[in-house]
Target: Branched-chain amino acid ABC transporter, permease protein (BraD-1)
Amino acid sequence: MIETLVKIAVFGAVVGGIWGLVASGFSLIFGVSRILNFAHGAAFVSSAFLAYALISEGYNLYLAILAGLLLSALIGLAVYALTKPVRDREVMVIILTLAFALLV
Model:
């Protein structure tokens, strides 16, 4: 019984830490660039899915994590390239990041 409670507590702490990192990344993006990047969640999920797919195919854990980080960086660069020309129009930036999140 106690082992189950410990497992649940550890799992909850890990999941809470992951969501805390995602939330702090979203907050950092908004705080620095004043852009509501709705594609941030899509980058997180895409990277996690890629890492999971690579691990389940038998690739090395560290290689899968590196591939996920690279995919996340590429998505971030693509969002930056799309939003750079329309940075001064906030509504267009929101529409672009929402559209990019739907496409990814």
About this structure: The longest helix spans residues 2-33. The chain is about 85% helix and 0% strand. Residues 14 and 20 are 10 Å apart (CA to CA).
